[in-house]
């Protein structure tokens, strides 16, 4: 059975995953510029290879985080629907959950285009 506490937890999870996704995206940008800088300066091939591995690992984390965010969003929507069926349609937790759902869906729309 869905409770407001569960809803609050799932909302927090979605928000945390959004922050995590943005963090990984920033890390990829930072590591890509560092790699490009190392190539321009003619860095040691071993160091360059290691930096490329770091960049590849950072890039792999974005799809993983995206999948976890999709699963978390589906979970949040399900919990919200259960609460609305049990006639709990108002409250700060519900408003926050709905705004988080809209925020995450907008994030998905911008990444798809």
- SS element count, helices: 3
What can be said about the biggest beta sheet? none
Low-confidence stretches: none
Total count of strands: 0
Kindly, what is the distance between the CA atoms of the first and last residues, rounded to a whole number of angstroms? 37 Å
Q: In one word, what is the shape?
A: rod-shaped
Mean pLDDT: 90
* Structural class by sheet pairing and helices: mainly alpha
Radius of gyration: 19 Å
- Determine the strand fraction and express it as a percent band: under 5%
Order of helices and strands: HHH
Helical content stands at over 70%
Task: Characterize the structure shown.
With 113 residues, the chain is mainly α. It has three helices and no strands. The mean pLDDT is 90.
Q: What is the secondary structure topology, with strand pairs?
A:
Layout: H1 4-41, H2 45-85, H3 92-112
Helix pairs in contact: 1-2, 1-3, 2-3
Compact overview of the structure:
The protein has helices spanning 4-41, 45-85, 92-112. The protein is an all-alpha fold. The longest helix is centred in the middle third of the chain and has 41 residues, at 45-85.
